[in-house]
Amino acid sequence: MKKIITIITLFSVVVMQAQIAIEKVQVDGDGVLDFPANTTKGILLPIVETLPINASAGTLLMDKNDKVLKMNVESAWVPLSDAGDITNAVFNTNGEIPGQNRIIIGAATTAVPGVLVLESSDKALILPKVAAPHLNVKNPYPGMICYDTVSKSMAVFDGLKWSYWK
d(Cα 47, Cα 22) in Å, to the nearest integer? Predict the structure, then answer.
């Protein structure tokens, strides 16, 4: 019985630190989270009313107040878009569950705040790959982020238009 428990425990530790492929069989390279090529889907960033005070560098979100996509850089919020539009956004009206309500990928634990935390010393997020999202994503949602395979840049949608970052 002890051997079975030991095997299950070891298997659980390996699974907790595994790479994750979404809608594909395996992760390309050293990604901790990877998406398929040639898609029209992206990651939807949270639209928040209050900017987190203790956000880690690299945190991405959309500010509900000024409708701007932002990234935290050295405790400052850097705009990634102009003011957009969130009139078509649907918001969750349920109260948050108290406690550590987050998903951690790449590590067993973390001290970093966030809903989805990708934490690894040698792996990174691989954005969904979309060819010319301004042409091919028919109904983008405010806060969508992806990698444009045509312009070779990160693309963010603010609810009105796409902004591209190299």
Answer: 22
- Pairing between strand 60-63 and 68-73? antiparallel
Three-state DSSP at 146 gives strand
pLDDT digits (tens, 9 = 90+) for 13-67: 444 456 888 888 888 778 888 888 889 999 999 999 999 988 889 999 999 999 9
Write down the pTM of the prediction: 0.78
Q: Reduced to 3 states, what is the DSSP secondary structure of residue 143? A: coil
Closest to 35 (Cα-Cα) out of 136, 152, 147 = 147
As to burial, measured by CB atoms within 10 angstroms (0-12 exposed, 13-18 middle, 19+ buried), residue 56 is middle
Place of tokens 């699974």: 15
* Structure tokens belonging to residue 102: 């987050």
